[in-house]
From TrEMBL:
GO biological process: protein refolding
PROSITE patterns: FKBP_PPIASE
Keywords on record: Chaperone, Cytoplasm, Isomerase, Rotamase
Family classification: Belongs to the FKBP-type PPIase family.
Function, in words: Also involved in hydrogenase metallocenter assembly, probably by participating in the nickel insertion step. This function in hydrogenase biosynthesis requires chaperone activity and the presence of the metal-binding domain, but not PPIase activity.
Protein name according to UniProt: Peptidyl-prolyl cis-trans isomerase
UniProt superkingdom: Bacteria
Origin species: Proteobacteria bacterium 228
Any Gene Ontology CC annotation: cytoplasm
Enzyme class: isomerase
């Protein structure tokens, strides 16, 4: 079966920067799963996966605008320390999670203060050309429930509590 809209794809990935350093990988863990065609995945990765089948391995290199976007120099904001999740003590360069109206996003601490923390709202990987090594583990038709919810369920997917 080929990857197309409303298929659930299980895949393994290794993410590398331009110098070939591994930034993220799920090797040794369950495969990641996502519902194709529902904007759950970087569009450049989704485009590269379209039409692939179980067992295929390949690499795709995405320019910043296809990956996490260009860096915006004005995306610096001071926010109350209590809104940052992920650590008790913040140091410059640490990545925090902040809940926003658009859901959770990662921010980078620029300057910690006692009550207010200056953060960079750019995604930590913004402005970088990235290479994804991808391996398609499985492809299946999505269930009507998955399509209705807009995401994959089960191993590597979205869990409802």
């Amino acid at each position: 079966m080929q990857i197309s809209d409303n298929t659930v794809v299980q895949f393994n990935y290794t993410l590398k920067d331009q110098e070939g350093n591994v930034l993220e990988s799920n090797s040794g863990h369950d495969p990641m799963a996502y519902l194709h065609g529902h904007s759950n995945m970087l569009s450049g990765v989704e485009k590269a996966l379209t039409g692939k089948t179980k067992g295929e391995s390949f690499s795709v290199t995405l320019a910043a605008e296809e990956a996490y976007g260009e860096r915006k120099e004005d995306a610096i904001q001071r926010i109350p320390a209590k809104h940052l999740q992920g650590a008790k003590v913040w140091k410059p360069g640490m990545v925090a999670v902040v809940n926003t109206e658009q859901g959770q996003r990662q921010v980078t601490v620029v300057k910690p203060g006692k009550f207010m923390i200056t953060v960079d709202l750019n995604h930590p990987l913004a402005g970088r050309t990235l290479t994804f090594d991808l391996e398609v583990v499985d492809v299946r038709e999505a269930t009507s429930e998955e399509v209705a919810h807009g995401h994959a369920h089960g191993v590597g997917g979205h869990h409802h509590h």
